[in-house]
Design brief:
The chain is built from 3 helices and 13 strands, in the order αββββββββαβαββββ. The strands form 2 sheets. Strands 1-2-3-4-5-6-7-8 form an 8-stranded antiparallel beta barrel. The protein is globular, with a radius of gyration of 22 Å. By secondary structure, it is an alpha+beta fold. The longest helix has 27 residues.
Length: about 280
């Protein structure tokens, strides 16, 4: 089984390397805890994602027997459901005893477009191949949190912020994939639409957290200028809030500006962060 998994890892590596650069690529760094037949209690995980494919490596601390466990694996995103991303994965771990453990399973990540942290839950099965040639099966459960960093946005941080309070301001040096047949106007409109959708999603989630202190909460999103350079973009805008404080019954309102960062994803865009101005 371990030989088959090794071949699978090599194949998935080749597929990831061959994936189009037009798709967004992310680096994920995280902390996780897991309960499995082997030993993993707490560990660190690093991963590279491009399109739906992911490669990850991990190091964990074991308690019985005590020592370090090293592993790696591949994942594939099955779908994108609002802020949830279900996926399947397969991996291989070394144990302090010298045995190898393979695992297969499914998981789900949860994260909002404008916040770089995301949580994940994985369930599956693990198979330990002992020195006696016996394979011992068992359950596997993992829970963790990742910090997501967009590779394209490392370059995007050098893009000048769009001009605030000028909705039609555009700075364009885009490079949309030729097969998309996207005009400059369409590319800019797509960036604005993605930014607006991401802000609406993020604000909607946040309102739920504040509903205990405020009533009659409402908001409007105004999307403004756009700066596009290659596969990265920034979109400025503002969010206006109004509502009533439950404790005092006093009305409140306010407007806050900010900039959404985007990275190109296929023929469209994906929001990767937000900076308040």
């Amino acid at each position: 089984m371990s030989r088959l998994l090794t071949r699978g890892l090599a194949l998935m590596t080749a597929l990831t390397a061959a994936a189009s650069t037009a798709h967004a690529a992310d680096i994920r760094l995280g902390l996780n805890t897991s309960a499995s037949l082997g030993c993993q209690i707490v560990g660190l995980r690093g991963a590279f994602h491009q399109d739906r494919l992911g490669l990850y490596g991990s190091v964990s601390y074991c308690t019985s027997p005590a020592g370090a466990s090293f592993g790696g694996g591949v994942s594939f995103d099955v779908a994108k459901l609002n802020n949830f991303t279900p996926y399947v994965l397969a991996g291989l771990d070394t144990l302090p005893s010298g045995s190898l453990a393979t695992n297969v399973g499914a998981g789900v990540r949860y994260g909002t477009p404008l916040f770089p942290a995301e949580g994940y839950l994985e369930v599956g099965a693990q198979f330990i191949r002992t020195a006696l040639g016996v394979t011992i099966p068992g359950p596997r459960l993992a829970l963790g949190v990742n910090y997501r960093l967009s590779i394209d946005n490392l370059k995007g941080t050098l893009i000048a912020d769009p001009i605030q309070n000028q909705p039609e301001s555009v700075k364009y040096a885009g490079t949309a994939p030729e097969e998309c047949k996207v005009t400059q106007a369409q590319d800019v409109a797509s960036a604005r639409g993605t930014a607006s959708s991401a802000v609406n999603s993020g604000v909607s989630d946040a309102l739920g957290a504040y509903s205990a202190a405020y009533s009659n909460l409402s908001y409007t999103v105004q999307v403004g200028g756009v700066s596009i350079d290659g596969n990265s973009a920034k979109v400025s805008g503002s969010v206006s809030f109004k509502g009533t404080e439950r404790a005092s019954g006093s009305p409140f309102s306010g407007t806050y500006g900010g900039t959404v960062t985007l990275t190109r994803d296929g023929c469209g865009w994906r929001a990767t962060g937000y900076t308040r101005s």
